Recover the amino acids of this structure.
């Protein structure tokens, strides 16, 4: 199994940064992500339909973005971390051929429930695809 | 700002609750594993039964970000039996009917009360939380509409659970809330400015490359009458023709059915030199009218033969135009079928 370290609450301080994660945006990822999240909206798998909506190509659905945000934060926090919230604001669409790069930073800690808040952003060639915060309880 | 009258009915919907929307499938390992495969999520809590058994959950759980996916309608846009027939999105249709056709998702805020274990059946109820005042953003003008979906895990009833029964209509008070989704969209009318800009860009692209993508915006055609036809036909042949009265031997422009000097009807035309002076001019900045140059310089030119005419100015330094400067006609053909007399600075 992949070695997965879990962040310990006592070791995490405000200002800690997460290791960057770059994700190539492909037709396969967008369509597979849409289907894995049961989202059959044509703009996520049909290029002609996407064009009729005014988009140059199919674009990633929100539920896939949510999944990738979870991957990014959990990849850092580890398998013993528990997500309490995942709040995102959407911006520039993810089109095939682009790359989205996540970065993140711990912005607050709550001793009472051993929870940290991580601010994340996912950037592509057009700007911010996603910004948001993820609340994570740590052991 | 005063609200539209029609908003009264729309606002009355705020706070409305919509019934249950059920998941087609119980939370299951297969869908979880495939979701993890696609997302690249490698946490064994979701896929490795042994690891999951040792966790506080005692079994495989669903990735929290997957919450919303369980309850989507699917390919046929149909919800499972027992789901509400009402659409929580009806408010968007009402706003759309008032001329706000576009929609974009703005916020998705998931909160998780607990993780969900394999075997649980989910449903959600929806509340129309709020509708903003009319706002204008970079995208256009419209309304932010916020819905809140509350997710529950249906608990087996105390009585013998009926596996054939799907989505009981009776409210089961013991159903446990497992999470919530705040979903905000912007229902809007696209900014007009964006469209005209896009059109202008398309027209430019078409001019340069004869792009086949979209028909380019063409120059407006002149209204041609029996009195003015000679002028446009002359232009097509590269001649600047001015109407001439054979009775009093004077010129006039624009052409008409009768001589403005002597009221005679005996009119023909003569070719003039095309040289003249800038009598007056304007540079039109607003509105921008594709496909014309922007800003658009327009001159009133006094021809050497004594008549004045209005024409577009080309190859001019817009900041250095001067009354009285020498100009020379130049014929340019647009869209393959329209030749116009324009004026450029006379070469020294």
């Amino acid at each position: 199994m992949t070695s997965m370290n879990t962040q310990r609450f006592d070791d995490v301080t405000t200002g800690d940064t997460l290791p960057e994660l770059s994700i190539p945006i492909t037709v396969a990822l967008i369509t597979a992500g849409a289907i894995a999240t049961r989202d059959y909206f044509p703009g996520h798998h049909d290029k002609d339909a996407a064009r009729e909506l005014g988009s140059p190509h199919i674009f990633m659905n929100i539920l896939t973005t949510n999944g990738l945000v979870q991957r990014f934060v959990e990849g850092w926090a580890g398998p013993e971390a528990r997500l309490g919230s995942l709040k995102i604001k959407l911006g520039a669409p993810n089109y095939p051929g682009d790359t989205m790069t996540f970065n993140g930073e711990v912005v607050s800690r709550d001793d009472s429930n051993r929870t940290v808040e991580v601010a994340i952003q996912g950037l592509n060639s057009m700007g911010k695809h996603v910004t948001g915060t993820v609340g994570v309880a740590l052991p | 700002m005063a609200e539209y009258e029609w908003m009264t009915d729309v606002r009355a919907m705020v706070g409305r609750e919509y019934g249950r929307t059920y998941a087609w499938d119980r939370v299951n390992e297969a869908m979880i594993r495939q979701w993890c495969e696609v997302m690249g999520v490698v946490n064994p809590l979701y896929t490795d039964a042994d690891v999951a058994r040792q966790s506080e959950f005692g079994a495989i759980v669903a990735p929290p970000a997957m919450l919303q996916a369980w309850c989507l309608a699917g390919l046929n846009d149909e919800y499972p039996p027992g789901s509400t027939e009402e659409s929580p999105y009806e408010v968007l249709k009402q706003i759309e009917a008032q001329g706000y056709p576009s929609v974009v998702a703005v916020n998705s805020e998931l909160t998780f009360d607990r993780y969900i274990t394999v075997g649980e059946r989910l449903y959600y109820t929806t509340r129309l939380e709020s509708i903003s005042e009319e706002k204008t953003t970079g995208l256009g003008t419209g309304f932010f509409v916020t819905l809140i979906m509350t997710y529950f895990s249906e608990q087996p009833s105390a009585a013998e659970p009926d596996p054939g029964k799907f989505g009981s209509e009776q409210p089961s008070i013991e159903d446990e809330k497992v999470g919530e989704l705040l979903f905000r969209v912007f229902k809007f009318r696209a900014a007009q400015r964006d469209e005209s800009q896009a059109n202008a860009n398309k027209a430019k692209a078409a001019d340069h490359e004869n792009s086949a993508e979209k028909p380019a915006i063409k120059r407006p055609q002149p209204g041609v009458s029996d009195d003015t036809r000679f002028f446009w036909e002359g232009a097509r042949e590269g001649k600047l023709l001015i109407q001439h009265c054979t009775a009093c031997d004077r010129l006039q422009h624009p052409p008409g059915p009768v001589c403005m000097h002597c009221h005679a009807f005996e009119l023909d035309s003569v070719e003039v030199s095309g040289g003249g002076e800038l009598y007056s001019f304007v540079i039109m900045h607003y509105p921008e009218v594709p496909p014309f140059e922007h800003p658009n310089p327009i001159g009133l030119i006094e021809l050497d033969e004594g008549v004045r005419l209005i024409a577009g100015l080309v190859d001019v330094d817009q900041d250095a135009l001067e009354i009285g400067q020498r100009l020379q006609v130049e014929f340019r053909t647009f869209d393959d079928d329209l030749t116009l007399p324009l004026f450029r600075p006379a070469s020294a």
User: Anything to note?
Assistant: The longest strand of chain A covers residues 99-110. Chain A has one domain: 9-137. The beta strands of chain A are 21-24, 82-90, 99-110, 115-124, 127-137.
